[in-house]
Amino acid sequence: MGARQGHGLLHETALEGFEAEGMRAMQQARSRELVVRLFNEGLALLRDVDFDGLSIEALCMRADSTVGAFYSRFENKEAFINALQRVVVALTRQGIVADYETHVAPGDNLVHLVDWIAKGATAWYRRYEGLVRASLRRANGEPEMWTPMRELGELQISYALPRILALLPKAISDGADERVRFAFQMLFGTLNNMVLINPGPFTIQHPTTARWLAVAMTQFIETPTRTTSKF
Questions:
Q1: pLDDT given at position 227
Q2: Residue 212: other Cβ atoms inside 10 A
Q3: Global model pTM greater than 0.85
Q4: Could you tell me how far CA 157 lies from the centroid of its own chain?
Q5: Among 3, 88, 167, 193, who pairs with 120 as Cys (CB 3.0-4.6 Å)?
Q6: Considering the domain boundaries, does residue 51 fall inside one?
Q7: Could you list the residue range(s) of the whole structural domain that residue 186 is in?
Q8: Whether the Cβ atoms of residue 65 and residue 38 lie closer than 8 Å to each other
Q9: Structural domain count of the chain
Q10: CB-based burial of residue 2 (10 Å sphere; 0-12 exposed, 13-18 middle, 19+ buried)?
């Protein structure tokens, strides 16, 4: 996921031209200011409560809003979370594209590039941990809830894959495409697992999580594909 986004706080510029199902159009600056406050307080609350435990009353109190004002902008809690997810995804997509197309992503060697990818992904998961957890749990009954998140990973792979392959020696290029894709599956799968069930011993907040993920990815990518015998 993208490395840009400041500290995870959304700003009014994020709502320019933004639309989502179940969210009413914002014609006035005052409406956009309120929606941004609701979104930011929603992100904060989701760190401590799950989707089912998210109280509209508590959200509105934190955002200095009324429940009536909330429902004048969102049809229900589901519409609010869906809109929040989509605005975060839209901003993250912009960040991914900008980082790769403006050459923020390291291009000198594989270790630096994968380290940058793992650190950026871990920082993003930390920033939006509650939203990711809510999306994963809702995806059990609503598979489409994870689609926007999955597409973010696919976008990053589409940019990172050719850059990683270009940095590999020819001697280990055979099968490298699949190894890179699986390395990303290791990255996202591990981070999702940490956010969803926190199995330990390492957590999303552990200071070495990003570094060790980068090491695991790099070593796997650099390990030549071997043909194994059938069982």
A1: 52
A2: 13
A3: yes
A4: 13
A5: 3
A6: yes
A7: 12-222
A8: yes
A9: 1
A10: buried
